[in-house]
Write a structure and sequence with these properties.
Elements: E1 3-9, E2 13-20, E3 23-31, H1 38-51, E4 59-66, H2 69-83, E5 88-89, E6 99-100, H3 110-123, E7 127-132, E8 135-141, E9 146-154, H4 156-166, H5 186-213, E10 218-222, H6 226-230, E11 238-239, H7 243-258
Parallel strand pairs: 1-4, 4-5, 6-9, 7-10, 10-11
Antiparallel strand pairs: 1-2, 2-3, 7-8, 8-9
C-alpha cells in the first residue's frame, strides 16, 4: 500500500503526517515560513522521511489544507516536484461528506472543515471541536453531520506573546501547570492566568454552545496545547492530536472514491 502525505498548513506551524491506510505512521511539526521555497520545504521533508526510515518514492498521494495563501502554491509545487503527485487541495465547495452551513462557506478555514469531518466520523454528533492553534477555534457539528459554525478566540501562544511584548516587566514563560491559581511569583501568576484562564474560556464557550444546541455535544480537543488545557477543563471529553490529519485522510479517500476533486 502506498503512502499518503497530509499537510495541515497553519499560521504558526505546518503539521505533516505520513499515513498508510488509516494508520498515521509519523507526524512532524514544521515552522510556517512564507519565505521558504518549494525546494527548501521539499529537501527538508525528504530528510525527515529518511530519518524516519520511510521512502519518499512510496508516496502516492498528497493532500493539503492551508490557511496561508502564500504557501499554498509553494506546497503544490513541492508535491509535484518531490513526490510526483498532483496534490488534493482542500477547498470550498468540495464534496467532503458533510454540509457546511456557514453564511459564506469560503470563509471557513480548511483545517476547521477537516476537523469537523474527522469528529463526525469518529464520534458522531453533535460534537464540538476545540482546536488550540494560532487562534483557538470552536467548531460545531450537528447530529446529522452538518458543519454549523462556531467561535474563534485568540490562541494561547498568541495571547501570551502579546502579553510579553506589551508589558515591559513580564517575561516569556513556559506553559506548564503551576499547581495553584494563587501564584507566588510573576511566572507562576502568569502561568495560572494563562492556563486556568483559557480552560475557563473553553468551558464557558462549550457550555454556551451546548445550551444553544440543546444537547450534550461531545467536546474533543486538538492542537499542540490541547492536553495541557484539557487537564484543567470541565467540559472537554476527549483529546485527539491527530484529528486534522484524520480528516484530511478521510477527505482524500472520498475524493479518490468519487473520482473528482
Amino acid at each position: 500500500m502506498g503512502l499518503l502525505l497530509a499537510l495541515d498548513v497553519g499560521n504558526t506551524h505546518i503539521i505533516a503526517g505520513v499515513l498508510s491506510g488509516s494508520k498515521i505512521l509519523t507526524r512532524w511539526r514544521l515552522g510556517t515560513d512564507r519565505s521558504k521555497t518549494e525546494d527548501e520545504y521539499g529537501l527538508f521533508l525528504y530528510e525527515l522521511f529518511t530519518i524516519s526510515g520511510l521512502d519518499p518514492k512510496d508516496v502516492v498521494g498528497v493532500v493539503i489544507a492551508s490557511v496561508v495563501p502564500p504557501l499554498t502554491c509553494i506546497l503544490e509545487k513541492l508535491a509535484r516536484r518531490y513526490f510526483k503527485c498532483t496534490p488534493l487541495m482542500l477547498k470550498p465547495g468540495m464534496d467532503i461528506g458533510i454540509k457546511v452551513l456557514y453564511d459564506n462557506p469560503l470563509e471557513v478555514g480548511a483545517d476547521r472543515v477537516a476537523n469537523a469531518v474527522a469528529a463526525h466520523y469518529l464520534y458522531g454528533g453533535p460534537s464540538i471541536v476545540v482546536d488550540f492553534g494560532t487562534a483557538t477555534s470552536f467548531d460545531v457539528v450537528s447530529a446529522e453531520g452538518e458543519y454549523l459554525g462556531g467561535a474563534i478566540a485568540p490562541g494561547i501562544l498568541t495571547a501570551t506573546e502579546a502579553l510579553f511584548r506589551k508589558a515591559a516587566k513580564l517575561p516569556r514563560i513556559d506553559l506548564v501547570d503551576p499547581g495553584t491559581a494563587i501564584g507566588k511569583d510573576t511566572v507562576a501568576s502568569m502561568q495560572a492566568g494563562v492556563i486556568y484562564g483559557f480552560a475557563g474560556q473553553v468551558d464557558a464557550l462549550v457550555q454556551r454552545i451546548r445550551a444553544e444546541l440543546g444537547a450534550e455535544a461531545l467536546a474533543v480537543a486538538t492542537g499542540g496545547l490541547a492536553p495541557l488545557v484539557a487537564a484543567q477543563s470541565k467540559t472537554i471529553d476527549k483529546v485527539n492530536l491527530d484529528l486534522t490529519l484524520t480528516g484530511l485522510q478521510l477527505i482524500y479517500n472520498r475524493q479518490q472514491q468519487t473520482g473528482h476533486e
